[in-house]
Amino acid sequence: MAVRALAWLAERSATPVYIACGQDGDAMAARLAQVPAISLQHSIRHAAILLVAGPYRDADRPALRRLHDQLPHPRATVWWGAVPLAEAQDAVTIAQGDHPVARLRRLDRNLLRGERASEPDWLPDEPPNEWRGKGDHGQGGEGMMGGVPYGRPMAMMGEEMRDALMLDAMTITIGPFLRTLPPGLSLELTLQGDVIQQARVVTPAYPASGGASEPLLRAARMLESLGLPDLARRAQISAMRDSAEGLLAAARRCGALLALPAELADVRARLEAALRGGTAPDPGEEWLVDRLAGMEWQSALLRIASFDPATLAQIAPAAEPDEDEEDGDEKERAA
Amino acid sequence: MTAIPLVFALLAAGIWFAAIAERFASARRFPSAIVLAPLWQAARLLSQQRVRTEYPDALNWALAPLVYGALAVAGLSVVPFAPGLVVAPLDTGIVLWGACEALTIVAVFLHGWSANSMLPLIGGYRFVAIGLPAMLLSMFVLIAAALPAQSLAVGAIVESQRSMWNMVRQPLGLPLFLLLGLAISLRGPMDYGDASDLSGGTAAEVSGPHRLAWGIARLAMLTAFAAMGASVFLGGYLGPWLPGPAWLALKTAALLLVLTWLGCNLARMPAPRMMAALWLVLLPLSFLDLVIAGVEALL
């Protein structure tokens, strides 16, 4: 009785969805921006439904599986213009041209009422790699630090690049489905605190999507990283209507341009151009990974999000794998 | 002891009001009955699984929202609802509030650290870096507000505003204090702990009832802060016609609206720029506020 009452109340709230954008997924996500019944989440842990929007690459399959298994129960996956993975039982598919809101709402309601079973894990509940530490308790690093036990890099002291202090360094992989990154882009970052010491492109971003509305979709991603979700949603809606009217003035009022320091003047110029619906050209002479070294987290995400797809394809191609990197070395989870 | 039910009533009403104001400010008017939307959201989170990361510090992870919420209650305990109507009538009420502010850093850091995950951890220590100068800012403006009362008791500070509110007497005080409110409730331009660029920061890995508890604790701290701000700068329970608790509730609601609006409509600077702004601009401004209050007290 109590469970049924809880479900009755819960199904009246907006459906929390995590959208994993494939090719053209960005523009598809924008179609959901003006639907109050759907709430797009920044963390997979906050969602009930994983919405895979647009075709994805074979290389993204492992990340998609890991992403799925982080969804809390009761959970479901919807394939919107995407081919379901073999693991997906009783897959819900929606054609790319169709609007998914009604199906998402119905699925959410069925999950809450227990009329549809929550999806099981797609990956076995075991470490993704074998134990590769040295000794009974050693993990392959020094003392209690460093090494890559089970393929996951542990923190290890290293010189901080700005002041040479010895601080913990940690390597993680982000993307290819992180909402604040261009869809498809996956980066391996070595961080000390929130400062990037080293970066490597794991998978490049998907080619341009969204057509003429691409600059506004890009602006929306930057506004999200600036802590302006409402303005970002407005930019997405404007992208769907092909009109950037009033966006730049609204961004100015919110201090979006003022918030960017002089070191990020390039980002500011690109944001301003994107809010006008255009693109500020970049010479594309320096690799993305070189432009990220020494940047703190939010600034780095803003800089990455500011590049138009053509420039990004030029400055952030997939890196050659390290020679000492073994096959199947899956480091930190994606997204 | 009638003040104890008043504390919890103000907290509950403030949490509800702030949750509605957030939805209204963000123009997400779904469902149409916006007043009940927080209840529906709470039911959803209660229906969801509470996930567990790999090897979390489970005890501290569970304790963090409780500590955060308890700090809000403790802070509110020194706020008077009417002359003599206060849970903890301390002569050093402002000091207790300052301790609650400072310990918020511990609660938020614990929340980020305990998840054993990278993004929450970054959220945790980024909050520590920004939280510390923001607390200093608050200490100076609160001391400045205490000067006309010549007392650190919140009741005395309220009584000192019978002729003029501190908001008018010390115009720099309230704007600077509001920045701290945004910081300790992890909101908008000062949200360095639970920010969207970190996929939710310290809350990136939480779901279900845990996320509900954290959300309630954040709103409780926001409410406690608004009540303290109303008492220290807007004359608290003072006002004609209505009883003291009603005036305090109205002024608290007004500050909640201001904080919600600021949270939704101001961009968040990258952390180094905010650090520079805090240490180089805002802290000197808080000194200036203190100097103005000191000169006025001498005259």
UniProtKB/TrEMBL annotation, chain B:
Keyword Transmembrane in record: yes
Annotated GO biological process: aerobic respiration
Bilayer topology annotation: Multi-pass membrane protein
Any GO molecular function: NADH dehydrogenase activity
One Pfam family named in its UniProt record: NADHdh
Listed GO CC annotations: plasma membrane
Subcellular location: Cell membrane; Membrane
Source species, domain of life: Bacteria
Keywords of the record: Membrane, NAD, Transmembrane, Transmembrane helix
UniProt xrefs under InterPro entries: NADH_UbQ_OxRdtase_su1/FPO
Stretches that traverse the bilayer: 59-82, 94-113, 125-147, 167-186, 219-238, 244-264, 276-295
Family assignment from sequence similarity: Belongs to the complex I subunit 1 family.
PANTHER family xref list: NADH DEHYDROGENASE SUBUNIT 1 (PTHR11432), NADH-UBIQUINONE OXIDOREDUCTASE CHAIN 1 (PTHR11432:SF20)
Identification of the protein by name: NADH-quinone oxidoreductase subunit H
Provenance organism: Altericroceibacterium spongiae
